[in-house]
Amino acid sequence: MAEHYYILSLRPMLPYFFGGERNLAYGDVGQQAAVNPYYIESEKLPPQSTLFGVTRFLGIEEKTEDFKINESMIGKESFSFEKIDQSFGKIKGISGLYIEKTMDSGENAYYIKTPLDHDIEKEEYTPMTYTKKIAATCGNLLVPKEYKVKKGTTKSYMNVKDGKIEKENEIFLESVQVKIHKTKKEDGFLKKKYWTLKPGYRFAFTVCVEEGFPEIKKQVVFMGKEKSPFLLSVKEGTININQALFKKTVMLDEKEQEDYVRKIALSDCYVAENTDFSQICDMMYLSFKSHREFMTNYSNDCGLSHLRRYKKQNYLVRLVEAGSVFIVKKENIEDFNRIIKNTHVQIAGYNQINGGEIE
Q1: Reported pTM
Q2: How far, in Å, are 6, 223, 237, 265, 299 from residue 214 at the CA level?
Q3: Taking CA 100 as the corner, what is the angle to CA 41 and CA 86, rounded to the nearest 5 degrees?
Q4: pLDDT tens profile 194-236
Q5: CA-wise closest residue to 162 among 205, 121, 208, 103
Q6: 66 — phi, psi (to 5°)?
Q7: Three-state secondary structure readout of 171-209
Q8: CB 270, CB 130: distance < 8 Å
């Protein structure tokens, strides 16, 4: 069956809030911090699962009060990391998240999180180089020549065409608002940090759907804990990443250069909890984040209100963040691919990896 590719753009219409686990509260941690925090900060980026939820929403042909869905169009259940081999009807897959920017020429440029091995002093993506190995408890590890401990790793975004870098403060604006706790009678003030994108920037991702998927039209969609409004625009096509950006020379010893493959996470990755990358990688730049799943009960006879149909899981999932980098010996590449491969997770845009032989 024919497949169609689209680029979906999401422009925030107001400061948005994507719930996370970052909050502060007085007294005992745990339940009080979850229910009555005095400071809560939104995530800057929408979770990958939220983007996939938007895609499934677009596949509901008729929104009805009895929550009916066409399983052959979007699948029968919500996405979950715990499930095995989930399918989602005519949705064949989505990409990881991009930042879309309107350039002075009127064309759109696309950015991804800059790989963490970027030399932070450079204005274009320049991976650090490795000079030698040092002995460690897990084996011999590569040493990055340009890494400076006090400066840490980059917090920026990279143009997928030419590798030019844009810092976070060039893209995002914060908005701190004072609220009142609805569940408290005294001392009920609360600060919440919202985010939005500067003019000219949007979130974007690509989708692949089969023939027969409902026409995707320009519309307002709501995302996040507070149902923040975003204007969704659509056009046919895909986003092409310049592969040469990931194939730059990083080994100063030419003999060792051909022994390694550099893998870069283009989206957040879900791997088994006990995964130990140090057994197959000689160098890694890893960043982790916590994610809590929400599940929807689609049953028509459960007797629940719209709000109570959403189940919040009581545990957190740890994800490897987009931008993480793995320097893998060629002899271990099959083991690495086995760790990353997870079909239904990749359909939802997770575990997207780029990188071939280091040239």
Answers
A1: 0.87
A2: 13, 20, 17, 31, 23
A3: 75
A4: 999 999 999 999 999 999 999 999 999 999 878 999 999 999 9
A5: 103
A6: -95, 10
A7: CEEEEEEEEECCCCCCCCEEEEEEEEECCCEEEEEEEEE
A8: no
